[in-house]
Amino acid sequence: MSRIAYVNGRYRPWRDATVHVEDRGYQFADGVYEVCEVRGGRMVDERRHMARLERSLGELRIAMPMSPAALGIVMRETIRRNRVENGIVYLQVSRGVARRDHAFPLPGTAPAVVVTARALDSVGNEATAEKGIAVVTLPDNRWARVDIKTIALLPNVLAKQAAREQGAREAWFVDRDGKVTEGSSSNAWIVTGDGKVATRAADTAILRGITRDVLIGAIAAEGLTFEERPFTVADALAAREAFLTSASQIVMPIVRIDGKPVGDGKPGPVARALREAFRRHAQVA
Ligand code: PLP
Prior knowledge:
This protein is an alpha+beta fold and 285 residues long. The protein is built from 8 helices and 15 strands.
């Protein structure tokens, strides 16, 4: 089946789904994005993703291209036209097309909007979660506003590639104080020796994941204790469990960090339970 993308007001066949050479997203990475899980053909946590999109755009002074409700319609239509049952829908908004100049273009320049959707291998993802994944660590060399979900992802790209080259699925960024900030495309968690489920505070040093936020609610509902605190790589290696969260991977157990085992080197019961619990807590509309 051929794929369809929404590009600036039109649903286009894949081969024609192109943006202008002077799109500021292409020239300057001057834009933001959202990735939303699709489950049973429906978007998961749409309202929260829209709220984060509005915040990201606001921080960069890019106008909302249309109302959240209208964007939701475009995203649902893109999911429908691509017949995605389980997967992701991707939304990108750039500051628009204008003659190349670093400073903002003239007021009234329309933001550019792209939406794509694709299926994910849910059977494969479950199999991966059964085994757990390996991560590697490396210095966090990103800018100081990674709380904004911008498309400027070069450090994340390089980190993910470094992970792949070492046989790992994710890279954890570590700040100057030795604390883990987050993964290249996920938030980082541990289950401490005394059973608390911990992740660092969502300040400007991490992206505040929607999965993270929903999971915090699920942790309490499961009768577990949540603790918002930073942790080091040594803390994670001494922890009972470690895992990551993201819209596409939900809760993914981590069994090795830099080649060393976490806990007994197998996915733990808390990560397993929370993977299930997330499904019950996420809002599907
Ligand atoms: N941190 C980074 C850097 C990310 O890119 C992502 C998701 O892509 C996340 C965290 C997790 O966010 P969410 O749970 O909203 O997918």
